[in-house]
């Protein structure tokens, strides 16, 4: 399976709701943990953890757009912290602390820290694989979110310029990502020893 990484600039216009915004992972390998009869069990057959400590990790879908296209990005793990400045576990813990008496199986609503990202423009590093192009949902996985660029000094005409405008694609970032992934899958091959699998 070929995997390619691309950089694109997009604006967040919604946090997709209706499904969970996080998952419970194995504290050792970050794979999804599931409830066993008496404890959590790691889904990763390679994981050697016997006692699994569950850790909330981001699994958030956001709707983004550029000048001409719209797409859904999936934010996983550390990319969520790069976006909100907070770990998913912290947000989940805060919810349960604020809502004492609520059961541990309660559905945690999308936190304000994620909703506050609506309207922000960021530079995303996205991963595209065969799964992204042929799966039922055809979403694009975000592996890193870069902080906003500091504004450049004002030009001689007195108009301030920002670094973000020059880096965004002029049109169709989703199509461009998909086309580049289809035409040049050899750009970056997946190397499991260098890139840990996030889910």
UniProtKB/TrEMBL annotation:
Residues 147-199 are annotated as: Disordered. One of its GO terms (cellular component) is DNA replication factor A complex. InterPro entries: NA-bd_OB-fold, Rep_factor-A_C. Residues 5-93 form the Replication factor A C-terminal domain. Pfam families: Rep_fac-A_C. One of its GO terms (molecular function) is single-stranded telomeric DNA binding. Residues 177-199 have a biased composition (Basic and acidic residues). It comes from the Eukaryota. Signal peptide: none annotated. GO terms for biological process: double-strand break repair via homologous recombination; meiotic cell cycle; nucleotide-excision repair; telomere maintenance via telomerase. This is Replication factor A C-terminal domain-containing protein. It comes from Brassica cretica (Mustard).
């Amino acid at each position: 399976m070929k995997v390619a990484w691309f950089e694109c600039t997009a604006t967040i216009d919604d946090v997709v709701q209706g499904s969970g915004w996080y998952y419970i992972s194995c504290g050792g390998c970050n794979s999804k943990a599931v409830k066993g009869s008496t404890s959590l069990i790691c889904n990763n057959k390679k994981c050697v953890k016997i006692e699994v400590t569950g850790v909330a990790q981001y699994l958030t879908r956001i709707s983004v757009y550029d000048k001409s296209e719209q797409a859904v990005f999936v934010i996983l793990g550390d990319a969520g912290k790069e976006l909100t400045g907070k770990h998913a576990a912290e947000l989940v813990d805060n919810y349960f602390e604020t809502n004492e008496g609520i059961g541990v199986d309660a559905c945690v609503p999308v936190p304000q820290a994620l909703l506050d990202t609506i309207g922000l423009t960021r530079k995303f590093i996205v991963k595209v694989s065969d799964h992204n192009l042929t799966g039922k949902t055809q979403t694009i996985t975000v592996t890193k979110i870069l902080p906003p660029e500091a504004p450049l000094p004002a030009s001689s005409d007195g108009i301030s310029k920002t670094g973000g405008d020059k880096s965004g694609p002029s049109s169709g970032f989703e199509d461009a990502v998909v086309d580049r992934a289809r035409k040049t899958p050899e750009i970056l091959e997946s190397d499991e020893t260098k890139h840990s699998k996030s889910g």
